[in-house]
């Protein structure tokens, strides 16, 4: 079963290209209704920072300086966004990004789904999209830092806390 349908095909690398393709969610998610809103994914980096800030505000995240968010996006290996498309309007409803050494490892950051769309499998679909893109770049070691209340969300996708006793360790400036 073809899970994803490519909207605009491209031969460039998915993680690094700047004119990203859009990929549409399968009918399994859209309810198979040709008149319903479409949900699409993109690796486009040219994201409206104010729209992203609104999305992060909606889940109660602390605001971060936009110039730093812009820099983080520019320097991420993969930027994944999820959009609700109605006619020629689109709304940012999900976001995630990953940093990487471009060879072995990637770390996923800033996973967020707008509360209006939570609990409908969208977060899982966004993570599947991110993992598919990372695997297509032959990245085999994917890590992330889970807030305590979402450990089980990541577990449903096969992430393991502390595999073989490995601990995440942190250093902060005093
Ligand atoms: C965490 C988040 C991305 C999940 O997105 P979502 O669209 O609600 O998740 P889904 O509907 O795709 O859920 C997928 C699975 O995870 C489970 N799940 C979702 N949120 C969960 C949570 N907070 N705790 C435990 N399980 C959760 C679902 O029950 C579902 O399980 P199933 O596959 O067995 O049915 C979303 O709630 C969110 O944006 N939260 C605020 C931001 C945040 O905390 N981000 C994570 C930072 S580490």
Word description of this protein:
The protein is α+β, with helices and mostly antiparallel strands. It has a single domain (2-156), classed as Aminopeptidase. Helices cover 25% and strands 25% of the residues. The chain contains five helices and seven strands; from the N terminus they run ββαβααβββαβα. It has helices at 27-30, 49-58, 66-74, 122-136, 151-155; strands at residues 5-6, 22-24, 38-42, 78-86, 89-100, 105-113, 141-144. Strands 1-2-3-4-5-6-7 form a seven-stranded mixed beta sheet. Helix 4 links the parallel strand 6 and strand 7. The longest helix is centred in the C-terminal third of the chain and has 15 residues, at 122-136. Bound molecules: coenzyme A. Coenzyme A (COA) is lined by residues 59, 111-113, 118-124, 146-147, 149-150, 152-153, 156. This is GNAT family N-acetyltransferase. Keywords: Acyltransferase, Transferase.
In short, what is this structure?
Helices cover 25% and strands 25% of the residues.
Total beta strands: 7
The total count of helices amounts to 5
Shape: globular
The CATH class name reads Alpha Beta
Under CATH, the topology is which? Aminopeptidase
Task: Provide the CATH architecture.
Answer: 3-Layer(aba) Sandwich
Bound small molecules, by name, code or SMILES, are: coenzyme A
**Portion in beta strands:** 25-35%
């Amino acid at each position: 079963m073809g899970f994803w349908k490519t909207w605009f095909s491209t031969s460039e690398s998915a993680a690094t290209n700047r004119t990203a393709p859009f990929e549409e969610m399968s009918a399994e998610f859209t309810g198979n209704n040709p008149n319903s809103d479409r949900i699409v994914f993109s690796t486009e980096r040219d994201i409206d920072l104010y729209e992203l800030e609104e999305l992060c505000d909606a889940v109660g995240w602390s605001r971060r300086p936009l110039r730093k968010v812009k820099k983080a996006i520019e320097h991420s290996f993969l930027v994944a966004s999820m959009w609700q498309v109605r006619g020629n309007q689109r709304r940012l409803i999900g976001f995630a990004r990953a940093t990487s050494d471009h060879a072995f490892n990637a770390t996923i950051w800033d996973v967020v789904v707008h509360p209006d769309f939570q609990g409908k499998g969208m977060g899982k679909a966004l993570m599947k999209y991110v993992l598919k893109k990372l695997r297509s770049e032959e990245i085999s070691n994917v890590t992330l830092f889970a807030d305590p209340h979402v450990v089980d969300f990541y577990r449903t996708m096969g992430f393991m806390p502390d595999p073989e006793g490995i601990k995440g360790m942190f250093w902060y400036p005093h």
